[in-house]
Amino acid sequence: MVFDFLDLYPTTASYLGLKKYNDRCEINISKTHILKEEKLVNKYLTDLKKIKEKIKEEKQKMNCLACILILKDMKKVIDSELLVRSKTKEKITNIPYSLLPLNQMDSPIQFIIDTINEDYYKIKEDDDFKDLISKIKEFNKWFEVAIENMRLGMKKNIVLPKVIANEVLKQLLCYRKDKSYLKLIEKSKKVNDSLLNKFKNLYEKEFLKELELFIDFFKNEYLNNCRDSISINEIVNNNIYKNIIKSYDINLDANKIHEIGIKEVNRINNLIKKIMKKLNFNGTVDEFHEKMKKDKNNLYKKGSELKTDIIKYKKLFDKEVVKKQFNIFPSSDYVIKKFNEDVSENLPCGSYLPGSIFGPKRKGIFYMNSIVMSPKYDVPSLVLHEGNPGHHFQATISQDSKKINFITIFHPNIIIPYDEGWGLYVEGLYQYEDLMLEYGKLNSELFRAVRLVVDTGIHEKKWSREKAVNYMKNNLGHGDGEIESEVNRYIADPGQSLCYKIGQMQILKLKKEFLKKNNDVKEFHKKFLENGEIPLSLLKLYF
Question: Residue 404: is its pLDDT beyond 70?
Fold first, then answer.
């Protein structure tokens, strides 16, 4: 099953370390690709349903059930993709993502730039350049298909919000100026000159030409047809957001999630009030947040300062959290890299890219944002979340277990509460003596609680962008630039931000029940991580 889907998604296979796929690039937004995916999904749904009852081993059964849930969700999206292309008047119930082929956080064009930057694998020999040339040739077809799909989206009113489209345009203009390809040529002195010239000509005369045509279409045609609304429910019907929430393994109504968010915001702010009292601050919580985020002492002046602190906190947590609370460890450490600064404005403060599963070992990467930088008091939580024992532990231990399955490879929506819930959960595993750092920990959790309110506010309650921004500004000690970027993120990717707080709350509940029977936190962490990534709704059956 895994390799059948990897054949369909060679770019995924490539960054996982399967070198034989390096010369390929799928156009997953084409109807041809969607039909191939439909065929695979139907085949494996049938097969897995047949063998499900025959599986006796508990862990295998969980994996089987998880794959069935994922395939069912994929089928729903495929059905909507095909329905929107038909002449039927039947309403779609899921987002046809192919009509929205890029946003400010997810751009296939960025994948090509990242590949040239060697984020996924090294490009240093003649054969590597032959593969890269072939990959870019295939990718160039994406531009034509994307324009065709986006024109269909314009007819169906399935288009990006204008606020997101404007951010995408900024990125597109940055791609036009990107010189990564020249840097790659410059450092590849042992590669045949004819190959380097071929690559350079392909990039400049074909890739950049296609990019320019796409920019022209986007700027002069598409942008004028983008919607003023920001709620995902307004593009087709009111079922879309509800179905998105379900796809993330969250069995809660949007209004209920909104209520939970407000309660959590109030609870965490009450804890912050205790810190305010110890610091002899007499104003309101909102005033305290405002003071913290504007205090120049809390802000980094340059990215090198941020990296120094990331390394410092990593050493601290490896000693005080990992060593004391864990008995299961990844086989390798992670490396720290900066995001591409040209497009960092709309990216999060940090993120994690898992290492390769197959082929030559590539370590996991902790990306830091040297443009949109968190206040100093937020950085410890970021280090715990993205690094050890956060996402790096999750991903690498899963890979080390050799239980490579569909979930591990493709990280579908259903697994995100497990991943991001864990990331937020581990942020709470260290008690700071420094009151400002303790505030940072609470502010980071508050950030995820606020997301519950804002994401549901935008998409279910149809808040304006201004209302969403103001709510975050009034309830968080985060910089205005970071808040603007975050609100844009929720608009572009509805539902994903719910997974952090909802996932954390589910993990804390599991932990509480486990410790009643076995008062050993190391064993809880081992039990949680040892099976690899499992949807929380199924994992709780294992505890």
Answer: no
Q: What is the pLDDT of residue 238?
A: 64
Contact 368, 339 (CB under 8 A): yes
Least confident residue range of 25-34, 256-265, 366-375, 509-518: 366-375
Q: Is the dihedral of CA 397, 395, 334, 487 positive or negative?
A: negative
Is 224 exposed, middle or buried (CB count within 10 Å of its CB: 0-12, 13-18, 19+)? Answer: exposed
Q: Is the pLDDT of residue 347 over 80?
A: no
pLDDT at 403 > cutoff 80: no
Interatomic CA distance for residues 277 and 272, integer angstroms: 9
Residue 22: phi, psi to the nearest 5?
A: -65, -20
Cβ atoms < 10 Å from Cβ of 472? 22
- Residue 523, Cβ density class (10 Å: 0-12 exposed, 13-18 middle, ≥19 buried): middle
Per-residue model confidence (pLDDT) at position 356: 81
Spatial separation of the C-alpha atoms in residues 512 and 540, rounded to whole Å: 12
- Check if the beta carbon of residue 114 is closer than 8 Å to that of residue 132: no
| Mean pLDDT, residues 116-143 taken together | 95
**Distance, CA of 442 to CA of 492 (rounded, Å):** 26
Helices (H) and strands (E) in the chain, counts: 25, 3
Closest CA to 351 of 401, 420, 398: 420
Question: Binning pLDDT at 50, 70 and 90, where does residue 429 land?
Answer: very high
Please give the radius of gyration of the chain, using alpha carbons only, rounded to the nearest integer: 23
46-79: pLDDT as tens digits: 999 999 888 888 778 888 888 999 999 999 999 9
- Kindly state the tokens that stand for 441: 């920990």
Nearest-10 Cα torsion for 180, 135, 489, 209: 70
Q: Are 260 and 342 in contact (CB under 8 A)?
A: no
Three-state DSSP state, 372: coil
> What would the pLDDT profile of 466-479 be if each residue is shown by its tens digit?
999 999 998 887 77
233-239 long-range contacts, Cβ below 8 Å, gap at least 24? 233/459, 233/460, 233/462, 234/462, 235/95, 235/157, 235/158, 235/159, 236/91, 236/92, 236/157, 236/158, 237/91, 237/92, 237/93, 239/91, 239/93
